[in-house]
Specification:
Distance between the termini: 40 Å
Helix content: under 10%
Shape: globular
Largest sheet: 7 strands, mixed
Radius of gyration: 13 Å
Structural class: mainly beta
Number of strands: 11
Strand content: over 45%
Number of helices: 0
């Protein structure tokens, strides 16, 4: 079992920035970020494999969000810039054991989940 602990959520105005962090208890080759709005399905935001030079981004966040990973610290990051009200959601860190990331991002591909952190963007 892999434990994932997220931090870094909060409230910002539109155009602002936040950085999410996710500390993992052990290494997995694929990690990613999902988000969920109440009443809607959880959706994939970004994912990356170890040493990935071309991470995956959902079209809605391309050019604004950057996913990165510090392998030595077992930490995954999501830098979110130019935030929009429609980015408001609970953000979840996820890890996929034993295999690399697949596209599109599918919830069932990921076996391990963090508790979620709220991101609220006001207009």
């Amino acid at each position: 079992q892999v434990q994932l602990v997220e931090s870094g959520g909060g409230s910002v105005q539109a155009g602002g920035s936040l950085r999410l962090s996710c500390v993992a208890s052990k290494y997995t080759p694929c990690m990613g970020w999902f988000r969920q709005v109440p009443g809607e399905e959880r959706e994939g935001v970004a994912s990356m494999n170890t040493g990935d030079s071309r991470p995956y981004y959902d079209d809605s966040v391309k050019g604004r969000f950057t996913i990165s990973r510090d392998i030595a610290a077992d930490t995954l990051y999501l830098q979110m810039n130019s935030l929009k009200p429609e980015d408001t959601a609970v953000y979840f860190c996820a890890a996929r054991s034993g295999d690399y990331c697949r596209i599109p991002m599918v919830v069932s591909d990921y076996q391990h989940w963090g508790q979620g952190t709220q991101v609220t963007v006001s207009s």
